Each structure stands twice: as structure tokens, then as C-alpha cells.
Amino acid sequence: MPELDEIDHRVLRLLREDGRRTFSEMAECIGLSVAAVKRRVDRLKELGVITGFTVQIDYAKLGWGIEAFTELRYPGTTPVTEIIRTAMDVPEVQAVFTIAGDPDALIHVRVRDLGHLQQVIDRLRRAGDVTGTKTLLVLGSWTRDSPVP
After folding, report:
1. What is the phi/psi pair of residue 132, to 5°?
2. Distances 103 to 76, 116, 123 between C-alpha atoms, Å
3. I need a labelling partner for 4 at 20 to 30 A (CA). Which of 56, 63, 85, 111 fits?
4. Residue pair 14/26 in contact by the 8 Å Cβ criterion
5. What is the per-residue pLDDT across 58-90, written as a single tens digit (0 to 9) for each?
6. Which distant-in-sequence residues (6+ apart) come within 8 Å of 45 by Cβ?
């Protein structure tokens, strides 16, 4: 695990708040030179702490406002790679979490409406060796925007 100091954590915090923040803005907030901030960001990328930069999208405004999590169950002999492959073939799947215990995987799905959700669940049920599903509809969400202390 890489050693990070308080300045590294401040850089990460600033980037989490706004991934498009310039090195100049961060330098001003932190009290370092622009070059020093750039070196810090480059080092964090090289260490694999920063894995990329992204944009946050309001999917409801694009017509994809329904989110759900679907539990998938498989026979005990199913390889984890098969579980992931089953979900990767469904474009509405946003993320796959293989987990210990029952169920075997938790799938994050984004769809247009409830009929679309039913189609996606049916597709997942027919894929691979799925033996059972349970779907939980997301009513609201909250995400921690600050780094882990």
C-alpha cells in the first residue's frame, strides 16, 4: 500500500470534488506550486491510486431513471468468470459485484421503465446457469464524496 501524506489526501479530495479542477486551482488551495501539484497527481496515477477521471451524469434526464440491484444465484460449481460474463452481455448492467455467501452476485442495473426492467431480469434469468434472482428497486441514493479518512 503506497504511503500518502496529508497533501496527497488533499489533492485527492479536491479531485473528487471536481475532476476537472486545474493544477493551478489545486496549487492555490493547497499552497504548493503548480509543478508540485502536477508531480503529486502524476505520482498518484503511477501508484494506481488515481485510476481515471470521470463525469457524473443525471441518467433520469436521459430517460434512464430507474435503478435496481438484482441478486443472482448460480450452482456452486459455476466459475466467477462465468458469473461476470453473464452480466457483461447485458448492456443495462452498470456493475457486477461477486460476493461471498448467498447470493453469488449483485448486479447494478439501469433501465428506462419497469417494463424494461422486467425484460432485463428475464434476460439475466435466461443467461448462463442462473438458478434464481431477487430484484431490489432503488428509491433514492446517497454517495460519500469525500475520501476515506
Report:
1. -175, 155
2. 11, 23, 18
3. 56
4. yes
5. 999 999 999 999 999 999 889 989 889 888 889
6. none
pLDDT digits (tens, 9 = 90+) for 103-149: 999 999 999 999 999 999 999 999 878 999 999 999 999 887 655 55
Q: pTM, whole model, 2 decimals?
A: 0.78
CA separation for the pair 67, 65 (Å, rounded) = 7
In sequence order, the 6+-apart residues with CB closer than 8 A to the CB of 72 are: 83, 86, 87, 103, 104, 105, 106, 107, 124, 130, 132, 133
- CB 128, CB 77: distance < 8 Å: no
Q: Which residues contact 26 (CB under 8 A, 6 or more apart)?
A: 11, 14, 15, 37
| Residue 127 CB partners (closer than 8 Å, separation 6+) | 86, 87, 89, 90
Our CA dihedral for 139, 145, 147, 149, rounded to 10 degrees, sits at: -70
Q: Which residues contact 86 (CB under 8 A, 6 or more apart)?
A: 72, 124, 127, 128, 130
* CA separation, residue 80 to residues 93, 100, 108 (Å): 17, 11, 17
- Sequence letter at residue 71: E
17, three cell numbers: 470534488
